[in-house]
Amino acid sequence: GESVGLHLPTLSVQEGDNSIINCAYSNSASDYFIWYKQESGKGPQFIIDIRSNMDKRQGQRVTVLLNKTVKHLSLQIAATQPGDSAVYFCAEIITNTGNQFYFGTGTSLTVIP
Amino acid sequence: EAEVAQSPRYKITEKSQAVAFWCDPISGHATLYWYRQILGQGPELLVQFQDESVVDDSQLPKDRFSAERLKGVDSTLKIQPAELGDSAMYLCASSLTGTSGYTFGSGTRLTVV
After folding, report:
1. Which of A16, A35, A85, B95 lies in disulfide reach of B31, CB 3.0 to 4.6 Å?
2. How far is Cα B101 from Cα A19, in angstroms, rounded to an integer?
């Protein structure tokens, strides 16, 4: 499958600080991106998505930024809470190949109380 | 809230035995995906269905894995014979249009001994 890599495998942040999780994707044809949160022993949970015709999208405490020039995606979590501790995956979808998902290896976020 | 149902949650099987996993997508979701997730890695697409038809099974090890979605609703993934390297989390996801609403089930944790 396609390669969707993450810059940092682990990230530790102090409770209340902002977190930034980065992701590099490889295929310039990707036109839909999703960030997932996965807690231990559970399936990935949808956080936020963004389409390639946008460069920023905001949700509740989360913001996704897309830079198509350098094929980079980031997830910003504001005022990080202990419940945010999990593994975060970015995924890219290339609609011209039938909407297949490609995932990276994930970033493990630990929030220090 | 609608969920993707998977069963069993856990399965331990001996190598060379057959094992099967079941997935019931969210009602009305035409696209169904099976993923394998090895511990510490991102999910890897095994097979994608659109209704009852296979859209992509290029990463499915067809000598031992099979998947079906006979009526375009629920789906079964089978492994026969199981090998030690098949130990992983098997995740099912569904989406309404193939470009939005991707939802994962809780997964089946398979251990081959």
Report:
1. B95
2. 25
> In A, which residues are within 8 Å of B35 by CB distance?
101
What's the gap in Å between the CA of B15 and the closest CA on chain A?
23
Q: Give dist(CA A68, CA B53) in Å, integer.
A: 33
Supply A18's token pair.
């902002």
How would you write the pLDDT of chain A (113 residues) with one tens digit per residue?
A: 444 544 448 999 999 999 999 999 888 888 999 999 999 889 999 999 999 999 999 999 999 999 999 999 999 999 999 999 999 999 998 877 667 778 876 899 999 99
Domains and CATH numbers, chain B: 5-112 (2.60.40.10)
Which chain A residues are within 8 Å of B34, Cβ to Cβ? Answer: none
Return the residue of B nearest to A32 by Cα. Answer: B99
A4-112, what's its fold? Answer: Immunoglobulin-like (2.60.40)
Query: pLDDT tens-digit profile of A66-96?
Result: 999 999 999 999 999 999 999 999 999 887 7
Is the CB of A42 less than 8 angstroms away from the CB of B107? yes
